[in-house]
Amino acid sequence: MNTQVFKTDGAKITVFLDGPDWDGAATATVGAFTCKTPESGAEVLDQAITFIRTQGIRQILGPMDGDTWHSYRGVIQTDGSPAFLLEPRDSLGELEVLKAAGFAQISGYFSARVPLVQTAQTVPPETANFSIETWDGSDPEKLFDQVFELSCEAFSRNAFYKPISRDAFMAMYMPMVGVLKRELIFFARRPDGTLAGFLFGTPNYAEGPKPTSAILKTYASLERGAGQHLAYAFHKAALAEGYDTAIHALIHDDNLSGLRSAAEHADVFRRYGLFGLKLDG
Fold first, then answer.
1. Helix (H) or strand (E) holding 262
2. Would you tell me how many other CB atoms lie within 10 Å of the CB of residue 113?
3. DSSP 8-class letter at 7
4. InterPro entries of this UniProt entry (predicted)?
5. CATH fold label, 3-108+272-278
6. pLDDT category, 281, cuts 50, 70, 90?
């Protein structure tokens, strides 16, 4: 990844020159942005923008560590509740610096929570197109290999998608094997055994070694209705495992999963934004 780090007294930012396309044009991203004061943040951001200009790039996304496979988005609204596992950090100060430089929000996301006793009230309609199964806990490399293939196909339709190599994907996700809880990982499989969808849930270890909430972190599907079945299975399993609360994490405002979260009467507790800047000239 073609990157450049800029530092000033009290601020730091990383430029990723090979970001995802935005409106069909080459785009850089800025991420890993921290600043102690608005002035130090503005100074380091100006250096980053000047550098991007010299590279002939006229579009910038942020906060984003290169692509949507890595950390991106910043908190724009919160009720002050503690961060959950793998959540983007609170970056309101840095976002104000971005906005002052002309960045505008171009995409929105939210996280919501719901008591598990009020979830999974409606059984999804039966289907012969796929069946839901849990991960048996064996061969994690094979698990992530299948997840990689389906993710690339399912997420390729998303805005700001950028392909990733299998090796890069494995390097990100294999270190997570030690914290995976197989009872919260589900697959939707077609009758021929091929993968139609997956859902990764995880205990919210940010609460400590005995968390009371479980996170519906990531799911993707290629078959209509698979997401609904996967979410139903997750909520039932999380309740059976003794968790009190489900966290519906990092959902795009326009995503169908947002409607499902609302149908469970989940309460939004955090909102996030992705911002963009188009440079003149």
1. helix 256-263
2. 23
3. E
4. Acyl_CoA_acyltransferase
5. Aminopeptidase (3.40.630)
6. low
Length of the chain equals 281
Q: Are 87 and 250 in contact (CB under 8 A)?
A: yes
Distances (CA, A) of 246 to 117, 157, 268: 10, 27, 12
Q: What three-state secondary structure class fits 68?
A: coil
- pLDDT, tens digit, 9 for 90 and up, residues 21-64: 999 898 999 999 999 999 999 999 999 999 999 999 999 999 99
Q: Which residues pair with 113 in a beta bridge?
A: 247, 267
Q: Which residues contact 68 (CB under 8 A, 6 or more apart)?
A: 20, 155, 158, 160, 161, 162
Query: Any residues with CB less than 8 A from the CB of 273 and at least 6 apart, and which?
Result: 73, 74, 76, 95, 105, 107, 108, 109
Token duo for residue 77:
């609204």
Tokens of 251: 């959902």
Q: Which CATH superfamily is domain 115-271 in?
A: Gcn5-related N-acetyltransferase (GNAT) (3.40.630.30)
Look up residue 187 and give its amino acid. F
